[in-house]
Amino acid sequence: SDQSQLNENSKKQSLDTVRENAEKQYLTTNQGVRIPHTDDSLKAGERGPTLLEDFHLREKIMHFDHERIPERVVHARGAGAYGYFQVYESMAEYTRASFLQNPAEKTPVFVRFSTVVGSRGSADTVRDVRGFATKFYTSDGVFDLVGNNFPIFFIQDAIKFPDLVHAVKPEPDNEMPQAATAHDTAWDFFSLLPEATHMTMWLLSDRALPRSFRMMEGFGVHTFRFINAQGRARFVKFHWKPALGAHSMTWDETQKMAGQDPDWLRRDLWEAIEMGDYPEYELGVQLFEESDEFAFPFDILDATKIIPEELVPVRRIGKLTLNRNPDNFFAETEQVAFHPGHVVSGIDFTNDPLLQGRLFSYLDTQLIRLGGPNFAEIPVNRPLAPVHNNQRDGYMRQTINTEKASYFPNSLSQGCPMLAPESAHGYVHYSEKINAPTVRTRSDSFKDYFSQATLFWKSLSPAEQDHLVAAAHFELGKVESRAIRERMVGLYAHVDHDLARRIAEGIGVNIPQDNPRPGVLPPQGRRSVERSAALSL
Ligand code: HEM
Question: Would you identify the family this protein belongs to, as annotated (predicted)?
């Protein structure tokens, strides 16, 4: 593959072949037959009946009848934009990923921002996590960084994801509330799941009310791996830092905006790009050595934890610029298919059990959402790197494969693809040694649920703390079950007694006597935080 061929227009040019403009063209059927009249159906006599032979009527209504596809099971509401990414200096020391080598190269990207809980038509300014998913069309294939605007997640193991989403989505009998967490099932679940406490603190904070997608951080959340050309691996956490800084709305502003302009965030993104005021984000990485896997007082495979920037600083390695709005919301923003399993040579996974489950889920859901196995051929999803393989057929197949043999090994077919060696950027999975019994348990190193929630609470300014407490009063105040409210206050008492007291005062439950289990529950057998100060990178 030749990196120098990519530039910021590469993806746009590839889409030109399918972009359609009907201006000054005749109206036709899907078969290209020109249509002189589209206001009246064909009838036997002026007052009917309508004739079945009216192929224009049948085709027009048939197509309309099938316009909707299932919305995403989560992150249904979103807005997308194209742009490009440019690395500041070669990262060859750490990764062989082609798009992180050459500062002169502009790698085309498509980004989709989203809310998580609400349906496609819900308001933008609700209290929720925001998705920040980036598709890099690199010369070595597509890399998707499918992140959120919080650096952590609710759960530690993907097997809890269906439970989480059933709890936070609208209640099953009355489908209320439309797009919010202020209801019994959500807080029932959180109150019974101490590992979610850190994330619920972020959810109650102003971080859940971004002022603009242009003013929002992004995080890959999981620990990934960078692998260099010598095969050496290091751990990496991904960050997006907005050039405009991170800003939130106040609760009152979000409520007014949900009424006055429910499209507030998508309109802001669209208009900024139309005006040439291009949103920019720096890509940051926290890099650390494999030998430091156990250097932290938490597990680096636990997605409910950050790696504090004081321990591993964020190095800014490149810039993302969004400079073009899609032409067609459905074709591009709705049909785009992100997947954390889309990695390129030089980037690999870790054993984070949340990440491992995601690797199954996205492809699985897209098979139904996008109608079969050929959705990688939808223009927005097509890589810029050439695609050659022996996958064949299936609903909506577009490619006309010309080889006779679609199997390995074969001796019949000329033009059959060859296997790519590592030197040609063939993807080789990182070889990690695993020698352990099969178990259905969770490591003790995942069991400190509160110390980072305390860290987060203490990092907030007094005004931000007031906002969080007010949010808890609103959210938990809507919960009918007193037992749920009490359990939540009980969990927050583990985080900070003053926080629990202030929340309890506003939601009609008893103030906890004392902090029941203050501070950190240190995982056994781990090295101390002081050790982390001496990290090698
Ligand atoms: C969609 C992020 C955890 C399943 C998304 C999207 C984002 C995202 C940004 C929207 C993609 C788009 O714009 O099209 C995350 C993050 C997670 C997480 C950061 C945790 C760190 C999970 C888990 C599962 C899951 C654990 C399942 C086990 C899904 C599904 C979709 C989705 C099914 C819909 C995809 C589609 O229909 O195209 N996620 N997610 N996510 N996520 Fe996650």
Answer: Belongs to the catalase family. HPII subfamily.
